[in-house]
Automatic annotation (TrEMBL):
InterPro entries: ACAD10_11_N, AGP_Transferase, Aminoglycoside_PTrfase, Kinase-like_dom_sf. This is Phosphotransferase family protein. It holds the Pfam family APH. Keywords: Transferase. Residues 29-264 form the Aminoglycoside phosphotransferase domain. GO terms for molecular function: transferase activity. The lineage of its organism: Bacteria, Pseudomonadati, Pseudomonadota, Alphaproteobacteria, Sphingomonadales.
Length: 332
């Protein structure tokens, strides 16, 4: 279904949820985010300004196999109540609301565009603080027991099972990319075949943070959360794509790997196996490459016509180069 967000309809949802008088005067689509549609909502509650964010599935309903936004909202609340910096969920859309699959959360002040907080001088102190802040958030998330997520339909599996699933998807697209073929074979020889040990965010990186001059204020976009290996989040954070040109700073474009590992361990995380993190960085690079394939397929198939998705498809080759560099040099 196409997204058709009416202010009066959303105001009715918020009034029902809060039990107070809510007015919605403006809903603006925000840039960024390839898999979700995100909107800034100008609202008032009992006469006072109440800035909100609404996030919906890009096509109105979840893509096959994707996490429903109602699940994402509940997952974010678990993380927030555990002390992670996460926006509070205000309302979860129901089918009868006619607004698609989505939820509304509080708006947190700060910068979400990574190239800005990674380069502008006013965020220099934030960049200094973010390695330790990210490490602490990850350690806290990975320490949560699986029972904390009871009732949530979350996926999971051994690293080998995740790799096999991704390889099957790759074959279904009917494409031949030698660097990706090599990466699948390389990972098959190295990824463990162990059961998942923790809830991982799945997309913990620059571009999915709200950052203030004091550093990390909120972690966004939890729709890839699943049970897995904690080192998956670290390898993903260190991927070259998420440095946004600051390639000399491997941790999100703002920090160093050893500082991340030390801060993670100091915050209560398990001792970090450096060789294993490298394997997960290769996996993250391949996974982003596969995401590029899937997103351009959305555009070409007509499921979600999008210039952004078409453009992302052109980044498939960047990941080929990054993979070959990782194989030859061990790190970027």
């Amino acid at each position: 279904m196409a997204l058709d967000i009416k202010p009066d309809a959303l105001a009715a949802v918020l009034a029902r949820t809060t039990g107070t008088d809510v007015q919605v005067t403006r809903i603006d689509a925000l840039s960024g985010g390839a898999s979700s549609a995100t909107f800034a909502v100008k609202a008032s509650k009992d006469g006072a300004d109440w800035p909100l964010i609404m996030q919906c599935s890009a096509a109105g309903e979840p893509a096959p196999g994707a996490m429903a936004k109602r699940t994402q909202a509940r997952l974010q609340e678990v993380a927030r109540k555990a002390g992670l910096p996460v926006a509070e969920t205000v309302a979860i859309l129901e089918a009868e609301d006619g607004l698609g699959d989505g939820f509304v959360m509080t708006r947190i002040d700060g910068e979400s565009l990574a190239p800005r907080y990674l380069r502008l001088p006013e965020y220099a102190a934030a960049r200094e603080a973010m390695t330790a802040q990210c490490a602490t958030a990850l350690a806290r998330l990975h320490a949560l027991p699986r029972s904390a997520f009871d009732g949530l339909p979350l996926t999971g599996g051994s690293p080998q099972a995740l790799l096999a699933k991704s390889f099957a998807a790759y074959r279904n697209f009917g494409i031949e990319l030698p660097a990706y073929d090599l990466a699948f074979a390389w990972l098959k020889e190295r990824l463990p075949d162990t059961e998942p040990t923790a809830l991982v965010h799945g997309d913990f990186r620059s571009g999915n943070f709200i950052v203030g001059t004091d550093g990390l204020r909120a972690i966004l976009d939890w729709e890839l959360g699943h049970f897995g290996d904690p080192l998956e989040d670290m390898g993903w954070l260190c991927g070259n794509a998420w440095r946004f040109g600051n390639w000399q700073k491997p941790v999100g474009g703002f920090g160093e790997r050893e500082a991340l590992y030390a801060a993670y361990e100091a915050a209560g995380g398990a001792k970090v196996d450096r060789d294993a993190v490298h394997i997960w960085e290769v996996w993250g690079t391949l996974r982003w490459g596969m995401s590029c394939v899937m997103l351009v397929s959305d555009h070409l198939s007509g499921r979600v016509p999008s210039v952004e998705r078409a453009t992302i498809g052109r980044r498939i080759s960047e990941n080929e180069l990054d993979l070959l560099y990782l194989f030859k040099h061990g790190s970027i």
